[in-house]
Design brief:
Order of helices and strands: HHEHHHHHHHHHHHEHHHHHEEHH
Low-confidence stretches: 159-168, 461-469
Number of strands: 4
Distance between the termini: 59 Å
Strand content: under 5%
Strand order of the largest sheet: 1-2
Shape: globular
Helix content: over 70%
Structural class: mainly alpha
Mean pLDDT: 81
Amino acid sequence: MKLAYGVKDKPKAGRLILFSLQQLLAILAATIAVPMLVSQNTGANLSHSAALFGAGVGTIVYLLFTKFKSPVFLGSSFAFIGSMSSAIAGAVSMTMGYLGLLIGALFAGLVYVIIALIVKFAGVKWIDKVMPAVVIGPTVAIIGLSLAGSAIQQLTGYAQNAGGSFVMNTTSLLSILCGLTALGVTIVCSVYGKKMMKMIPFVIGILAGYALAAIFTGIGHAANVEAMKIIDFTIFKQLSSGKAWYPDFTFVTAFKGHYGKGMGAYLGTVALAYIPVAFVVFAEHLADHKNISSIIETDLLKDPGLHRTLLGDGVGSIAGAFFGGAPNTTYGESVGCVAISGNASVLTILVTAIMAMVSAFLAPFTLFLSSIPSCVMGGVCIALYGFIAVSGLKMIQKVDLGENRNLFTVSVILIAGVGGLALQFATGAGKPPIVLTEVACALILGILTNLLLNIGNKNKAEAVEADGAQENEAVAADENATEEKAEAEQEAAATEEVKE
């Protein structure tokens, strides 16, 4: 696609603020959902505003390591929900649990640092061989498709029966209407909008959905109809509380405790919970960066380099968890926002990070963001997640699917991912298991399938490469001969002129 703003472009101040707000809205729901889910699982009280602040810090760290060449926002990683829950549940006290979150993020970050050092010295050519377009393309598509269920659940207001199907009651119908309004306005602005409207479709779409939900909620309160109360305005009562005005940083609680007995065994539990998941997230890191590379038409694995993106992601995760408890990761929502808006300006990502950090201390703004109904975010996420899936499929446009090797590889990845193939490894009685996500399983299965089907294909590839080299040499020789002939003709013409 044609980008309105490239990576190095600098939008004007007014536009920059709007673009950054759009990015913030795109990543908001997922970023604050992680600490909320962990708190529900463990009884802890992780702060969503602290997670937002940590995401901003982690993103700035990432931008520094990648030399401001990769326009991606880092947010709380869903992959580590089980790890975080295990760290808190396995602790003797809550303060030790908070310390476990910091130590766990350190373990995960160190995995990235080690892999980055290996890549630094071994290069990235092996990645192109192990994960060519036929593998990475459908895997990126799976990242979007695996989030499809989440978008629909948000859209319908999480109205599901015991069998898992969606129940069409009054609340869910109104939720769908608000969500589809947000989606429809987003689409119309993106396709038919002029200038700025085309650049900030998500902001306009979310505000339109929120406005409709507010109207329904107002009518619900006036008529005392619970089914119409889509927005929970009672959340703004927290403005009277001093705690709403500052984040509850994880490190503050973690450093309050006194540790000693049982710490060694606990560290082993935390390491077991975090380190395997870090390898899983590494696979998703590759897929995300291949995706954004295709959008900005620059291979980020080569410039600034995979080792830098890994260091930025790893150290950014440690920094983010230090404040918010949750390790960070590159966000597909952010990539989707770049693709739809056509704005790849890395300055937008930097301002978004700063905005996230500042907003963590602005209770009215934070509470407003928290009050956006899930159905409205679900509506716009249909477009966001869909763009991620489509961008992955675009990567295999030039892949010959008439070749069985390629056809089997793509088929295996898509079916394993869409089917939800995931593996769980028990960590002990009463503790959350370590989960190998469907994205990671699909990628691993695709890599193995591709390697299996190309074992005897090495000589063919080498022959093709040799033929290509010979063809290039022949072309170069013809070009040299043509140049020499032209020079000779020019010299002859000059000689004739002198004679005359």
